[in-house]
Specification:
This protein has a domain at 80-149. With 152 residues, it is mainly alpha-helical. It has 5 helices and no strands. The chain has helices at residues 21-24, 30-33, 59-75, 83-106, 112-149. The chain is elongated and about 110 Å long.
């Protein structure tokens, strides 16, 4: 048999219930967290990830959907197009027209001129496309907002 010792065993550690909220938040936001009340119990701080990504559609169908959305965007009275798009789309049209009519007059080098003209056309069209896509992304966000918070 063993003799009783005077050393008491240490108590078991307290069970950890949850990670503190502060450990899940990036450090740049922590100074701002002192100003906000704590989130309610059961709050989901990060939205769940979708289980499977959306399936990509047919290329021609995607282009047709983008064209239809652009037409809806232009004629939607609830949406105001950004100043960039208001200025850029007419400017792109003017640049394409000037390039078509005047490029060969200004630069008439036999083999270089047609290639440079096509490259300039491609760059101007690409610029217009990127501006349109950015504007359509803004319009989709506005439609999403209106569908959630519209009080008719």
């Amino acid at each position: 048999m063993t003799e009783p010792t005077s050393v008491q065993p240490s108590p078991p550690p307290a069970p950890v219930t949850e990670q503190p909220v502060a450990s899940m938040i990036p450090p740049a936001i922590l100074p701002l967290m002192r100003l906000l009340p704590p989130p309610p119990v059961g709050t989901i701080l990060a939205p769940p990830e979708p289980m499977e990504p959306a399936r990509r559609g047919w290329f021609v169908a995607q282009i047709w959907a983008e064209v239809r959305l652009a037409m809806r965007m232009y004629f939607d009275p609830r949406y105001r197009i950004s100043r960039t798009a208001q200025v850029a789309f007419p400017l792109v049209g003017v640049l394409l027209a000037l390039n078509y009519f005047l490029f060969s007059v200004w630069f008439s080098v036999a083999f270089v001129s047609p290639i440079a003209e096509r490259l300039l056309d491609a760059l101007v069209v690409l610029l217009g496309y990127r501006i349109l896509i950015r504007e359509l992304d803004r319009y989709r966000a506005v439609l999403d907002y209106l569908s959630r918070f519209n009080t008719r």
